[in-house]
Amino acid sequence: MTRTPGRLKKRPQFLRVASRGRKVAVPGMVVQLLPDDSSAEARVGFTVTKKVGNSVIRNRTRRRLREALRLVAKEEGLPTGDFVLIGRDKTRLRDFSELKEDLKRALRKCLEK
After folding, report:
1. pTM of the prediction?
2. 99-108 per-position pLDDT tens digit
3. 33 has which bridge partners?
4. Are 46 and 8 spatial neighbours (Cβ–Cβ below 8 Å)?
5. Do residues 87 and 58 lie in contact, with contact meaning Cβ atoms separated by under 8 Å?
6. In the 3-class helix/strand/coil scheme, how is 2-65 assigned residue by residue?
């Protein structure tokens, strides 16, 4: 059983990943990754802007991202470091299997750079 990743909760944590990390945009989301080899676990944060919709839509979008990450982590594992998953308007409309593939592709691209 894989451990659930830790959480990024404070704004400075998100800003640190945004300023120093790698950024990959795929149709279903934007992934920012700040690799950290000294960390024992991955930490993840989710954000969805008000441009996407009202609070109900934003929360649904965030839940889809969270579930996609949980399943990808279970299947393939996550590298250590800090991640920020940014939901887009297409995130809530995208087929869930495509959303998972988007996340896998984005993580691979982040690790290649």
Report:
1. 0.89
2. 999 999 999 9
3. 22, 83
4. no
5. yes
6. CCCCEECCCHHHHHHHHHHCEEEEECCEEEEEEECCCCCCEEEEEEECCCCCCHHHHHHHHHHH
